[in-house]
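Retry 2 of 3 after timeout on previous attempt. Resubmitting structure tokens to design endpoint.
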């Protein structure tokens, strides 16, 4: 039976491209926002959600982290890292010499990945944030009479019939985004066309209040066990200024000794710890194009 995969739509977002690589033969279900994707899994409408969590230029996608911590607790069952290439595109009717956009539309992360380009080429032109890069491309395609542009990927230009005026407008050549796979059940990755980068375990750690040196002690619990951390990030608890939790990625699968031992040590320090997932990590090496 085919799985239903909720993803940040509409068709031809970067998330759509990531889904096509990881789950080429499953049924795709576009959703308007990241919380909608996660809700679809929680409510049983979809089996799996694929949502962006971190970009190499712009950092974390906070809504993904916050929604999984504060609203809907679903385990992370995988991650995939894909290259991101942003292009500047317009409706073919507007692709004429001397075109100057009145407004440029895209997803906030995409706009942030192209700040230098926007500052240099289109200083003073307002950028408006929409729910995804493909939503921006779709909008531009539906309003041929307006002098507007979108920043999106090549597939979105094809899908919505736009003309790419400038390719690769992201500010740094190493531009990759990490997407996570969220599901109630463990996920079978047979058939993926990606490189397996090993396993990871993601923990959420809340430090005890007013405990001097707590973060140092937390990190030592990993350090003396020689557990390699690939990410540590703090996010507000949303209970008061200065109250934060930490998301920690450990570069190994959940075992029976080292990670449980670390968690016991952290709990003995007064921390609250939960395991957000233990999962395989994949990478797509070349810019993705759907076949
Ligand atoms: O708008 C899209 O195409 C998305 O898939 C979202 C998103 C993001 O949230 O970071 C994904 C990858 C890129 O970094 C830009 C935008």
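Retry 2 succeeded. Sequence:
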């Amino acid at each position: 039976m085919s799985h239903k995969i909720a993803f940040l739509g509409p068709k031809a977002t970067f998330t759509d491209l990531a889904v096509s690589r990881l789950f080429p033969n499953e049924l795709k279900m576009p959703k308007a926002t990241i919380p909608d994707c996660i809700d679809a899994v929680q409510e049983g409408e979809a089996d799996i959600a694929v949502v962006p969590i971190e970009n190499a230029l712009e950092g974390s996608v906070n809504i993904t982290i916050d929604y999984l911590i504060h609203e809907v607790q679903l385990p992370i069952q995988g991650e995939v890292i894909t290259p991101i290439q942003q292009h500047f595109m317009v409706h073919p009717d507007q692709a004429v010499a001397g075109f100057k956009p009145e407004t440029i539309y895209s997803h906030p992360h995409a706009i942030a990945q192209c700040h230098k380009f926007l500052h240099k080429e289109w200083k003073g032109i307002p950028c408006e944030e929409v729910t995804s890069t493909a939503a921006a491309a779709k909008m531009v395609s539906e309003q041929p009479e307006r002098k507007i542009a979108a920043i999106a990927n090549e597939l979105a230009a094809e899908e919505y019939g736009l003309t790419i005026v400038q390719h690769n407008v992201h500010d740094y050549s190493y531009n990759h985004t990490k997407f996570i796979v969220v599901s109630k059940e463990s996920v079978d990755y047979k058939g993926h066309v990606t490189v397996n980068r090993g396993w990871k375990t993601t923990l959420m750690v809340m430090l005890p209040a007013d405990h001097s040196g707590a973060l140092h002690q937390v990190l030592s619990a990993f350090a003396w066990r020689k557990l390699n951390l690939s990410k540590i990030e703090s996010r507000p608890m949303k209970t008061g200024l200065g109250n934060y939790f930490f998301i920690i990625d450990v570069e190994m699968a959940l075992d029976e000794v080292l990670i449980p031992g670390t968690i016991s040590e952290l709990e003995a320090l007064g921390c609250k710890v939960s395991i957000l997932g233990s999962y395989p990590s994949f990478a797509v090496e070349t810019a993705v194009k759907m076949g």
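Attempt log closed. The pocket of prephenic acid is lined by residues 8, 13-15, 52, 55, 61, 84, 107, 109-110, 132-134, 177 (CB under 6 Å).
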